[in-house]
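Can't paste images in this forum, so I'm doing it all in text. The chain is below; anyone willing to post the predicted structure tokens underneath?
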Amino acid sequence: MDRRVESYMDRCVESYMDRCVESYMDRCLESYMDRRLESYMDRCLESYMDRCLESYMDRCLESYMDRCLESYMDRCLESYMDRCLESYMDRCVESYMDRCVESYMDRCVESYMDRCVESYMDRCVESYMDRRLESYMDRCVESYMDRFWTTIIVNSLGADLKVNAGQVSRAILAKAGPKLQQEVTSKAKFLNPLPIMIPTAGYNLSCWGVYHVILDINYGISRLDVLKQAITQCLFTAYNYASPSISFPALGTGTIGLSKKDVAEVMMNTVLTFAVENPCSMDVYFVIYPQDTETYKAFRDRWKTYEWNKNTTSATKQRDPTPDIGDASSNSRDSKIPCLIINAESDEDAEEAKAWLENVLYTHPISIHNNLVLLLGQEEHDILSSSDFPDVFIEEKLSNGKCLLEIDGPQQEKIKGVIKVEQLLLNVQEKHAVTLEEELVEAAVVWFYENAGGAWRYPAKANREIEKAFVTQSDLTLNSEPHHTICMKSPTAKGRDGSFWLERRPLFTSSKAGQKKHSPIDWPSSVVLVDPKSQEFQDYVKKFKKDRLTLVKMECIHNRYLSKIFQSKKETNKKTVQLYQAVPRQFTRLICDVGFQSIFSNPIDPKFGQGIYFADSARRAVDFFQTPKEESGLIYIFQAEVLADNPTEGGKDLPVLVPIPRKKSSAPQSQPNDILDLCDSLVNSTFKPSIYAIADNFRANPQYLFTFQQ
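Text version of the structure:
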């Protein structure tokens, strides 16, 4: 048992010890391994972290350094560029300012010198012309007195009785000698108050005597009455002494300042009245300075009035050569048959005046066909409806784009109303013509005024005035804003806002011929009469003879602005046609100046749409437009070159702007390709058009104006 127990105990102890040792060794080994692994892991992790941190720090530092360097370089470069640019700009501005100041100073000095020289030349020329004119007038008066013999010369004196006060008086005194002044002074001593006329001898003059009239004294009556008495007294004195002739200057038109028209009226009437009341063979002369055109015109117009009255009286006597002697009123004014003589610059004007008078005198009611009625405003309607025309009935009718005024009432009141209507229509026509000229000129040329502060464009009204001054090479002061005074020689402008240079900017290519000086009559167009003997005229005579029209006159038209605009449009629209339009005579000059307008023409039936109508022949124009019905009436027809691309068939209800329709296809109706793709003209037939209507007046250029006799 003991051995068995001992053996058992040994095995148990051995087994226990094995397990204990094994367990102890496991724990020791595990602990050791843990420590070694931890230490190893620490070292590995530390080494790895060192490498990672070093690499990360390298990258961060590199990126940071790149950013810093880039920012620094940017700041350095920017600062350097700023300094360089500032320096460069300083030099550029300084150089530019030097050039600008130099150029401005040059222009200022040049302009100042021009003004100084111009002013000095004006003063010199004025002074020279005054001296030359005075010398010339003295020679003219002296030569007149030498060559033209008259028995009595009338001279004008002032209140101081100085014979050498005026040019005529000075010339008379120089020719007559000092005794003439002595006689005037000696006679005045014994005359109190001074008379209107003092007669003296002629002395060295080749005349019988000199009558000195004194108008510059207060006689208690008007100056014109004093003049009338002076003329009458001179005529009676010459008549009593049987003087065969007497010469009068234009008395009172000098220092006294009487109106030349009033002086002509008083002097002519006084002489004519004296001639009627005192029949004699005395010749009366009115002596006028050669350069005094205004005085000459006043006397000439008064003489024409006298000739007209004389011719009217003669015509009346010829119409009624044998009045009823037994009738006590046969010599009265009411017994004479009225007669009217029409004087005009041309046969066409006389014919138009005759037609107008016949319409006024023999038509009931009076009809006025004029589309300008559409332009009458409220002011004109108020005038016609005022109390000045209480018994006049005025009716306005509008039909097919045509205007008609019918005026009726008592004969005298009716004629008075007709004249007022014609006057208002003429005023409206002139205003409308100016507006159309402004639009035409502004479409071709634009004027600017500029200085160192900038450049500004002139308004339309001022633009037209300056362009007209440019064409005629004349200076002017603008009647509209900005009210500048324009000098075309410089060219410069002055106003309340300073001085400026003028710049003309043509909107189309301008030729040198357009910059030469033109007469104001040629503004803005020139109309030249074609010689009836020329081959061109004869060719047109044969051409229109086929249309049963007799060519009376042919005029060639050139509108410098309309031609430029038309040529520019012609570059993109190649197709042109030669067309005709019949117009009333009153609008012919307007069309030459501003081009065709729908308001100027009167088509009988504008059934192909709205626009400006033309016909393909003169005969068709006569039939299509309103023309005089009488055989003796004159017809005025324009020949024009018209752009007629993209025509379409017109209709009465079509708008002004018509899109080009698509070509016919299987679609139920044609549709436009593009609403902005518009037709240039409306026609009566696209197959063979004979009537055209255009919306743009700049697409027609007038070439000739023909005057026909039916």
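The first helix runs from residue 2 to 147. The CA atoms of residues 663 and 670 lie 7 Å apart.
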